[in-house]
Amino acid sequence: MTTPIPPAARPRTRGALRAAGYRSRSVRAEVRENLEARLREGRPTFPGVLGYDETVVPQLETALLAEHDVILLGERGQAKTRLARALVELLDEWLPVVEGAPLRDDPFAPVSAVARELVEEHGDETPVAWVHRRDRYAEKLATPDTSMADLIGDIDPIRVAGGLFLDDPRAIAFGLVPRANRGIFALNELPDLAERIQVGLLNVLEERDVQIRAHLVRLELDLLVVATANPEDYTNRGRLITPLKDRFGSQIRTHYPRDVDTELAIVRAEARVATSVPVSMPWFLEDIVGRISQLARQSHAVSQHSGVSVRVSIADFEAVMASAARRALRTGEARATARVSDLVAIVPAATGKLELDGLEDQDPEQVIAALVALAVRQCFTERVVLEEAAAIVAGFDGEVAVHVGDDLPDGHYATILAALPALAAAVERVVEPGADLGARAAAAEFLLEGLYLTKRLAKDAAGPRALYRARSGR
After folding, report:
1. Percent of the chain whose pLDDT exceeds 70
2. If pLDDT is split at 50, 70 and 90, which confidence band does 233 have?
3. What is the distance between the alpha carbons of residues 417 and 426, in angstroms, rounded to a whole number?
4. What is the pLDDT of residues 69-108, one digit of tens each?
5. Is residue 151 within 8 Å of residue 197, measured between CB atoms?
6. Torsion-angle region of residue 13: left (phi > 0), alpha (psi -120 to 50) or beta?
């Protein structure tokens, strides 16, 4: 990503900045005023975040209008970090700073010793630089070994060796928090921070100052602080101390997508499969993939404390598309359409992302396979009216059997549809008008699997390959 270049016409000295009528604002006021403008104009505040329009977004907008620091509380994969990063768009595009100063100092209210000396020496001729809003966001993943030096700063031994005294403010190597001055500082997984380090942040959130070791240095920092955390009943690596939690003005609870349509909207926006073969995903395959995560969030077999991230749906979607692309590459077909037999690719994609309930000894592959089967059955029963069901089942009388699999070319299904006219008629009502053979092959597999899961056909399966036949004793 290229670094934006500020317009040449912008003021380059402190005096020119004053003459241009520049008005210093706190970063909180800056965010609030820009948010107010968006709300008046009817523009979305967080256009890249889906599923929160009626829940999280109004709460976050209210917190920002109140100029609060915010803690976003929720399970993994609920877009907490994305929300924090999206706040950058509420900053002014360009910010004037004292050129050469370490803390993005305001030319009219410098906080660092270097900036104060520059302003004192040069007055209105103090050089001004311009910082783009994307450079005003600092993010730190909290870990148990994060130190005060990382966040606040410490004495730089190299500077001391170069001749500076220990009590010289210029001997300080500032940490992330001071360097985020006049910007947004995001701290992810806050409870993982050691409690003694959390104590060190109390002044940052309340008095807006920092103290470094024994230095009598007080930096009047201008920050908007955003933290993320998992619910306290989930994380067992640490806890959020009560005084620090109390310093945040607003605590906002995030959540997973509450319906399949929202889940799929996120998946479509995030999933990426870069193969040389064009791959299409039929509507029923999309619906099934979206349902799997929704069902997992309700399953007693899956740990609900750790949550089921939307990343599961994204990985599942990508794996199914990749399985279809693999088939086309092996069969030499120019394009691919995902089928039910490609759903077996979900097992390795989801296994590492779902934590099972520790109270039961379960096989992850069996749990995921059961979720997939339930999603297929729900999609079939809720979204398909199969008037030809009896005629399709009757077509399996005798020794008729149908082979399907993830390695079979689309042409194989043309033979199946020709032999089972009732199935072919049902397929035409499932696919779009004028659909190609790949789409009709996928619909045929979906209908056969639906008839099996509703106990109207029998099935012998071996991985992604299956044989459908009449049920014995029917």
Report:
1. 94
2. very low
3. 10
4. 999 999 888 999 999 999 999 999 999 999 999 999 999 9
5. yes
6. beta
Please give, one letter per residue, the 3-state secondary structure of 426-461: HHHHHCCCCCCHHHHHHHHHHHHHHHHHCCCCEEEE
Task: Show the 3-state SS of 126-193.
Answer: CEEEEEEHHHHEEEEECCCCCCHHHHCEEECHHHHHCCCCCCCHHHEEECHHHHCCCEEEEEECHHHC
On whether the CB atoms of residues 380 and 453 are closer than 8 A, the answer is yes
358: its two tokens: 């520790």
Q: Are 422 and 388 in contact (CB under 8 A)?
A: yes
For residue 250, give the H/E element and its range: strand 250-253
CA nearest to 31, candidates 177, 229, 222: 222
pTM: 0.86
Distance CA 252, CA 254 (A): 6
* Sign of torsion over alpha carbons 217, 18, 183, 172: negative
The DSSP output letter for 258 is S
- Per the DSSP assignment, residues forming a β-bridge with 43 are none
Distance of alpha carbon 175 from alpha carbon 146, whole angstroms: 11
For residues 56 and 62, give the distance between their C-alpha atoms in angstroms, rounded to a whole number: 10
Nearest of 164, 192, 166 to residue 76 by alpha carbon: 192
Residue identified by tokens 């992302």 is 353
The per-residue DSSP string of 344-403 comes to GGHHHHHHTT-PBPTTS---HHHHHHHHHHHHHHHHHHHH---TTHHHHHHTT-TT-EEE
- For 161, the token pair is 């060796």
Q: Which residues pair with 78 in a beta bridge?
A: none
Long-range contacts of 407-413 (CB under 8 A, 24+ apart): 407/327, 407/330, 407/331, 407/464, 407/465, 408/327, 409/327, 409/331, 409/333, 410/333, 410/337, 410/436, 410/437, 410/438, 410/441, 411/437, 412/441, 413/437, 413/440, 413/441, 413/444, 413/445
411 CB burial (10 A radius; 0-12, 13-18, 19+):
exposed
Residues in the chain: 474
* Class level of CATH domain 14-253: alpha beta
Among 34-38, 202-206, 357-361, the range scoring the smallest mean pLDDT is 357-361
Q: Is 189 left (phi over 0), alpha (psi -120 to 50) or beta?
A: left
Domain range list for the chain: 14-253, 260-469
Q: Which of helix, strand or coil describes residue 100? A: coil
